[in-house]
Write a structure and sequence with these properties.
- The chain is an alpha+beta fold.
- The protein has one domain: RNA polymerase II/Efflux pump adaptor protein, barrel-sandwich hybrid domain (OB fold (Dihydrolipoamide Acetyltransferase, E2P), Beta Barrel), CATH 2.40.50.100.
- It contains four helices and nine strands.
- Strands 1-2-3-9-8-5 form a six-stranded antiparallel beta sheet.
């Protein structure tokens, strides 16, 4: 299982890459593997303000439909429009081209509540 050391992780299997005062969000390799082949991503609206742990997106796969939860709170400033035509990027490149959105971090202290790579490995039993 690919678990990059430079990211933070939620217990709901989202990853966070801090980029200054913003955070790029996606789903982990573990999550995409459990979902199976992703066929559709319901992207959140740019400008929407989300709270930590709030469902803000849905991913539909050949197995199921799963909600995606905001690992931190803030305003959504970007979405990955490429997922509209290529939802499978969540499977093929979950930590790169398969990102879902960028959130302007409202409370940097929330980042400290996320897991590091070792903590996420322990969570999933890897």
């Amino acid at each position: 299982m690919n678990i990059p050391e430079d990211l933070r992780y939620s217990r709901d299997h989202e990853w966070v890459r801090v980029e200054g005062s913003a955070a790029r969000i996606g789903i982990t390799d573990f999550a995409q593997d459990n979902l199976g082949d992703v066929v559709f991503v319901d992207l959140p609206d740019v400008g929407r303000v989300v709270e930590a742990s709030e469902a803000f997106s849905e991913v539909e796969s050949t197995k199921s439909v799963s909600e995606i939860f905001a690992p931190i709170g803030g305003a959504i400033t970007q979405v990955n429009a490429a997922l509209g035509d290529s939802a499978e990027l969540l499977n093929s490149d979950p930590y790169g081209e398969g990102w879902i959105c960028v959130i302007e971090v409202a409370d940097p202290a929330q980042l400290d509540e996320l897991l590091d790579a070792a903590g996420y490995r322990a969570l999933i039993g890897d």
